[in-house]
Amino acid sequence: MNRTWERIIRENRETILKRWLEFGLDLFSGKMAPGTPISEALADGMGMMLDGFAEDGERCREGVSRVTRILAVHPFRPSRSLSLFPELRSILQETGGSEGDAPFCTERIEAILFEAFDLFMEHRETIYQLKVEESRSKMHMLLRSTGS
Amino acid sequence: MSKYLPKQADLIREMEEKPSPLKGDHAKQEWWEMPVEFREGNFCFPAKPEVIEELGFANPRKWAVTDDDWQLPEGWQKTLMDGMRERIKKYRSLKLYLDSCVRCGACADKCHFFLGTGDPKNMPVLRAELVRSVYRGDFPMVEKILKGFAGSRKLTKEVLREWYMYFYQCTECRRCSVFCPMGIDTAEITIMVREILQLVGLNNNWILAPVANCNRTGNHLGIEPHTFVQNVESLVDDIEELTGVAVNPTFNRKGAEILFITPSGDVFGDPGVYTMMGYMLLFEHIGLDYTISTYASEGGNFGFFTSNDMMRKLNAKMYHEAERLGVKWILGGECGHMWRVVHQYMSTMNGPANFLEEPVSPITGTKFSNAKATKMVHIAEFTADLIHNSKLKLDPKRNDHLRTTFHDSCNVARGMGMFEEPRYVLNKVCNSFHEMPENTIREQTFCCGSGSGINAEENMAMRMKGGFPRANAVQKVKEKHQVNSLVTICAIDRASLPPLMRYWNPGVSVYGLHELVGNALVMQGEKMRTEDLREDPMTGFDDKEDDVD
Q: pTM score, two decimals?
C-alpha cells in the first residue's frame, strides 16, 4: 500500500503541497505571505515530508524537523502549531479518495505527529540551551580564568 | 502538576474567548487596533533602577514589560510630545522622513523582522506609521482638523506599548532604506523614538547596562584596566603555545604610531577572542608600532542605541585617548555599529581631530584618504592593502578545514559601503569561499536579527525569527557547497550568529575575518602548526612538516 500512497502523492504533489502550505501560512498572525523566506522554508520542509511520507525514513524526519523548527519560535500554542500535521491527513484522504489506504495514512500521520511533538520540544529546549551558552560565551575569558 | 502551569480552563478561555488575529477577530479593525501582546521571548528586560540612576536618566524604578502599570511619570504625554517636537525641530532628517512617505510599500517585505514574524507592524512603513500617526494628529494644522481621515491618533498608553514593542524589534539595519524610492531611513526614526522613550524611562537593560559600564570603566563589560590587560596577556600566552611566537602588545604607551581600538567582545567573549589573537599575530608579523588603550577599551558604542548625547560622550574617549597618547592615527578592529558611529558621526560629533594625521600605512606607504576626516582606518582596509602590496606571507591551505561564506555586517556594508575589502582578504587567506544568494549580501545583506542592543538572552525567540532570513541564506550555501564557516567582521555578529546558526543551521560555526588571517599567517620563528587558533585540527597538517617555504 505504501506504493499506492507514493504514487498518489507523486501525481498530486503540487496540489497537495499548495493546500497544505496555505493552511500553514494561515497559522501566522495576519497570514504569512507566500514567497517569503518562511513560506519557502515551510514548503521545502513539507515537500521533504511528502516525498518521504510512504516510508518511515530520514527524509521525512528531516522535513518534520525543519517545519517544527520554524513553528517552535513562533508564539502559537504548541497544539496550534502541531495542528498542521493532522491537516495533512484530511488533504491526503480527500486527494486519494477510495484508492488510498486510509488506515495506513492515519497510522503514518500519527507517527509523524508524535515525531513532530518530540522535535518541537527539542527545538524549544534548544532555545533555552542557547540562552545559557550565550551567557557563558560572553564571559568566556572570565570563566576560563576561574577554571570553569 | 506544577503550580506555575496555566490551568486547562484558562487555556480554553484564551483560545475560545480571547480575540485573536489567528481567528480573524481583528479582520475589520484598523491596523492600529491590533493588540500588542508581550510574551516570553519577544521583548528585552527593562533597565535596572541603579543603572538608570548611575546614568542620570529619567524615571528609575523596578518594573516589568508585562506589568499593567508601567509607572510612567506624571505628565508623560507632554514629556514625550515635547521631546518629539524638539527633535523634529533639531533633526531635519526626522521631519523629512515623517513627512515624505507615500506608503508605496516598497519597504514592506524587506525587513527581516517582518519576513521572520509575518507581523504587519514590522513592515518598515507601518513601524514608522506608529509614530507618524501621532505626529500627524498633533502637529500640522490641516491634519489636525481632518483627524481620523488622515489616519491620525492620540498618544495613549496602548500606543506607547506599541512603540516600545516595535521600536525594539527594529535593529536599525537600514535594509528597508535601500529600497525606499523616497530615501527614507527608518533606522533614523527608530533611533529618535528610542531616544524619546528614554525621557519617560522606557528602556532596555541590555543596552543601558553596557552604556553605564562603558561610561564608568571604558568598556561594555565594566572590566577594570588591570583585568583588561590580564585578558589580553592570557591570549598572548595562547598564541605562543599554539604558534611558538611571542607577540608583544603594549598598553597606554605614549608615542606609539597607532592606537588600536576594537570591541571589548574581542577581548572577553567567545569566539571574539580568536579574532583578537589574529590581530595580534598580524601586527607582530608586520612589526607594527601600536598600542592598546585600557581607557578607550571599547570600540562599540551602545550610546548609539540610547541618545545622541550619550553616543557622543562614549565616542569622545577615542579622540581623547589618541590625543593623550600622541599617536598619529587610529586603527579600528572588526565591529559593526562602531564603524557606523565612526564613519558617519565621529568627525563632526567630536572632531575635527586636527591633532592626528591623515592615516598612512607605515608598512606600504598607502595614504588612506577616505579616512582623512575621521583619522581612523578599518582593519579590513588596512589588511587588504598589506596583502595587495605583498607584505604578508600567507598559507591559505591552513584554512582548508573551513568552507566559508561571508556575512556583510549591516553597519559596515550599508553604513559605510565596505563590500570588497573583506572579500579580498578572505579570498587570500582561504581556498573555499562561496557567496550567499545575491539579494542577501552586500548592500542587500540581511541583519543577524540581534543588532542595535536587542541581543538579550530573554529575547531569543524573537532573535531567531528576525535572524531567519540570514540563516535561510546560509542554509542555501551549506546545502550547495557544504559551507561550514560563516565569516563576519562585526562583534555583535560574532556573539549573535553562533546561536542563530546552532538553531537554524547546526554544523556552521562563526569566525572573525582576522581569525582566519591569523590561521593563515606564516610567522617568522613559528613552530609547526597543526591546529588553528581554536585548537581545531587543520586539514593536511597532521604529523608532517608545514609545506610552505
A: 0.91
Residue B337 is inside which H or E element, if any?
helix B337-340
CA pair distance B232, B267, nearest whole angstrom: 6
The pLDDT-based confidence of B136 (bands split at 50, 70, 90) is confident
- pLDDT grade, residue B184 (50/70/90)? very high
CA of A116: how far to CAs of A20, A70, A71, A78, in Å?
Answer: 16, 12, 10, 10
Q: Is-contact B450 B171, C-beta < 8 A?
A: yes
Neighbours of B511 (CB within 10 A): 26
Check B117 against A133: CB less than 8 A apart: no
Using alpha carbons only, give the angle B244, B250, B252 rounded to the nearest 5 degrees.
Answer: 165
Tell me the domains of chain A and their CATH numbers.
2-145 (1.10.490.10)
Q: Which of B37, B465, B498 sits opposite A137 (nearest CB)?
A: B498
Work out the minimum CA distance from A103 to partner chain B, whole angstroms: 31
Q: How far apart are CA B247 and CA B234, in angstroms?
A: 11
pLDDT in tens, B295-308: 999 999 999 999 99
* Nine cell digits for residue B145: 482638523
Q: Please list the helix, strand and coil fractions of chain A in percent, rounded to the nearest 5, in that order.
A: 80, 0, 20
| Nearest to B350, CA basis, from B313, B378, B310 | B313
Please tell me which of the candidates B119, B221, B267 has its beta carbon nearest to residue A29. Answer: B119
- CA of residue B260 relative to chain centroid, distance: 19
Interface test with B, best of A23, A28, A138, A148 (most B CBs within 10 A): A138
Per-residue pLDDT of B474-501, as tens digits, reads 999 999 999 999 999 999 999 999 999 9
Q: Residue B465: its chain A contacts at CB < 8 A?
A: 73-74
Residue with cell 542555501: B476
DSSP B440: G
What whole-number distance in Å separates Cα of residue A123 and Cα of residue B205? 27
Neighbour-count burial of B171, counting CB atoms closer than 10 A to its CB (0-12 exposed, 13-18 middle, 19+ buried): buried
Q: Which residue of B has its CA nearest to A76?
A: B22
Alpha-helix runs per DSSP H in B392-549: 410-416, 420-429, 460-466, 468-481, 491-504, 513-520
- CB-based contact A138 B231, cutoff 8 Å: no
Q: Are the CB atoms for B484 and B432 separated by under 8 Å?
A: no
Q: Do the Cβ atoms of A137 and B270 come within 8 Å?
A: yes
My answer on whether omega of the bond before B396 falls inside 30° of 0, hence cis, is no
In this predicted structure, which of A24-38, A49-63, A107-121, B225-239 has the lowest mean pLDDT? A24-38
Q: With cut-offs at 50, 70 and 90, classify the pLDDT of residue B152.
A: confident
In chain B the domains, ranked by start, together with CATH numbers, are 34-203 (1.10.1060), 218-388 (1.20.1050), 396-520 (3.40.50)
Number of H helices, E strands in chain A: 7, 0
ipTM for the predicted complex comes to 0.89
Residue B149 pLDDT level (bands cut at 50, 70, 90): low
Q: How far is CA B358 from CA A82, A88, A119, in A?
A: 61, 66, 57
How much of chain A exceeds pLDDT 90, in percent? 60
- Cβ–Cβ below 8 Å for B41 and A127: yes
